[in-house]
Specification:
The chain is an all-alpha fold and 174 residues long. The chain contains nine helices and no strands. It is globular, with a radius of gyration of 17 Å. It starts with 6 loop residues before the first helix and ends in a 7-residue tail after the last helix. The N terminus is likely disordered.
Length: 174
């Protein structure tokens, strides 16, 4: 297997922070819309987006993030919240190097409403790449480019397609 960039190289820290802030906003929006408080605790389990972004410790460990996301997946009644939880669980697993499990989560997140579908596609391809499944990863990077041509992840997908080709011994095409 070829070792390339780490998650911190591929996904800037501020995007990971924004995703957790989105998670907090999602929890708050359910309460603000007058819906019943979800079993995973909503705003009691997560900081408000503003508090999270202003805190000194504005990140959870990957294990903590996976735990919070799992609570959302198991008990959310709203499909958007459940899909966000699946996406966040995949991201937490990716950060822990659990690429097989993150692959399953990112694929599952594509089956319902999710805000960051382009990022989910990119991270699915990254999970495949880190498992040494370069051909499959190349396909997903290509789909990302076609389905989301304006995505900020398209440039990195192009570079990763070349990395996949190199890993597959197709250096002339890379």
């Amino acid at each position: 297997r070829v070792q390339y960039a780490t998650l911190s190289d591929m996904v800037p820290t501020h995007l990971l922070t924004v995703n957790l802030a989105l998670l907090a906003l999602c929890a708050n929006s359910m309460v603000c819309e007058g819906k019943t408080k979800p079993a995973w605790g909503g705003i009691d389990d997560l900081p408000t987006a503003e508090a999270f972004l202003q805190s000194q410790h504005s990140s959870l460990s990957p294990a903590e993030a996976e735990e919070h996301a799992q609570k959302m997946v198991v008990s959310a009644d709203d499909a958007r919240v459940r899909m966000t939880g699946i996406f966040m669980r995949g991201l937490a697993r990716f950060r822990q190097g659990q690429y097989g499990e993150s692959t399953k989560d990112f694929k599952a997140s594509h089956t319902g409403p999710i805000e960051n579908r382009d990022l989910s596609h990119f991270l699915l391809a990254e999970s495949l790449f880190h498992q040494g499944l370069y051909g499959k990863a190349r396909e997903v990077y290509g789909k990302l480019r076609k389905r989301f041509p304006a995505s900020p992840w398209v440039h990195r997908a192009r570079m990763r397609i070349a990395d996949c080709m190199l890993a597959l011994g197709q250096s002339a095409k890379a």
